[in-house]
Specification:
By secondary structure, this protein is an alpha/beta fold. The protein has a single domain, classed as Rossmann fold, CATH 3.40.50.300. 54% of the residues lie in helices and 13% in strands. The chain has ten helices and five strands; from the N terminus they run E-H-E-H-H-H-E-H-H-H-E-H-H-E-H. Strands 2-3-1-4-5 form a five-stranded parallel beta sheet. Helix 1 packs across helix 10 and helix 2 packs antiparallel against helix 3. The protein is globular. The relative contact order is 0.20. Bound molecules: thymidine-5'-diphosphate (TYD). Thymidine-5'-diphosphate (TYD) binds next to helix 5.
């Protein structure tokens, strides 16, 4: 049986990933092709623990956080009940809102990127995306969208962090340009325009 394809969506917070994932799902389903939508952190038990760390309810070291995301990712892939790998084997296409490039970009603000890459090595061995779509917006644009122009001092800290996350994404894409297929789309275009660019890349793969 023909295997499903795996597409990962990436971008800093506020980049418009969710809108584009909805648009792409709709276009694929209109062709009567089966597609499974998922996200990271996953909805499994390791994912929910990871979300509690994200909300600050659980406090731990940055290396532990990065390792949690890596563990959640492996479970997301290999879980015998709803793991991505079993879907792909069944011929179902899978779209994930975030995958290992999120780890490379977000955790490398606090810990060395090569360590984060090493920690995720097994996931990369198990399943590399057939395509990673990166919706690129600046940290400033992201903050404007997130706060809708409300002024808050604490938010400046967040903007500089998002700016580092974006730089890390670009650095990781450059580092892995030989082995990864990445489509970088200008996230300031209209949702329709972005959707069309993504569709041009995805349709021939289906
Ligand atoms: P979520 O609320 O789903 O945000 P979004 O809608 O922007 O995707 O939370 C995901 C957050 O988790 C996001 O801020 C990025 C972060 N994250 C990591 O730090 N490392 C990872 O490996 C992943 C997958 C996400």
């Amino acid at each position: 049986m023909k295997k499903g394809i795996f597409i990962a969506f990436e971008g800093i917070d506020g980049s418009g990933k969710s809108t584009q994932i909805q648009l792409l799902m709709k276009k694929i389903e209109e062709k009567s092709i089966r597609c499974y939508q998922t996200c990271e952190p996953s909805s499994g038990p390791i994912g929910s623990l990871t979300r509690q760390i994200l909300t600050g309810r659980i406090k731990t070291d940055n290396r532990v956080i990065a390792a949690m995301f890596a563990a959640d990712r492996l479970d997301h892939l290999l879980n015998p009940i709803d793991g991505i790998v079993s879907k792909i084997e069944e011929g179902i296409h899978v779209i994930s809102d975030r995958y290992y490039f999120s780890s490379y970009a977000y955790h490398s603000v606090d810990v060395p990127m090569d360590w984060v890459i090493k920690t995720n090595e097994e996931s990369a061995k198990v399943l590399r995306p057939d395509l990673t779509v990166f919706i690129d917006i600046s940290a400033k644009e992201a903050m404007d969208r997130i706060t809708k122009n409300r002024f808050h001092t604490e938010l400046f800290e967040k903007e500089s962090r998002l700016s580092k996350v974006r730089e890390n994404y670009l650095k990781a894409f450059e580092l892995m340009k030989e082995e990864e297929k990445v489509l970088i789309v200008d996230g300031t275009k209209t949702p329709q325009e972005i959707g069309n660019i993504i569709w041009q890349a995805v349709e021939p793969m289906l």
